Amino acid sequence: MKPKGAVAKSTKRGRPSGPAKKRINTRFPEDLADKIEYAAALRGVAVASFIQEAVAEQADRVIEAESRWKLTRDQAAAVAGMIAQPPKPTKKMLEAAKLASRHVVLRD
Q1: Can you tell me whether residue 78 is helix, strand or coil?
Q2: Dist. CA 67–CA 61, nearest whole Å
């Protein structure tokens, strides 16, 4: 099994190896298409392989960036304070917890 976000290795001609699983069609402005074709040629790979690699790298960066919270020092201190001294539960909070517990299954 390939690691998450892994791109299929390319063959000698620069095409992705293995069968394609899904097709995504897109259109590019002519100047961008020309740029992509030129860059792929400079690398000596097929355009499809070049696009797959570039998109996979960008997708990994976006997923990594969006998987974390970015807090200021003040915000981080406020969160740490709430963790250290959580507020007392209100009646509505206790009712919500009781309702939610009906949907939780504990397994061994």
Answers
A1: helix
A2: 10
Instruction: Decide: 35 and 3 in contact? Cβ < 8 Å.
Output: no
Other CB atoms closer than 10 Å to residue 49's CB: what's the count? 21
- Sign of the dihedral defined by the CA atoms of residues 52, 54, 57, 63, in that order: negative
Structure-block tokens of residue 91: 């009646």
pTM, two decimal places: 0.51
Q: Where are the alpha helices (DSSP H) in 2-90?
A: 30-43, 47-66, 73-84
Phi, psi (degrees; rounded to nearest 5) at 80: -60, -40
The full set of domain ranges for the chain reads 1-108
Residue 1, pLDDT score? 43
Q: How far apart are CA 49 and CA 32, in angstroms?
A: 16
According to DSSP, residue 104 is labeled: -
What is the tens place of the pLDDT at every residue in 30-86? 999 999 999 999 999 999 999 999 999 999 999 999 998 889 999 999 999 999 999
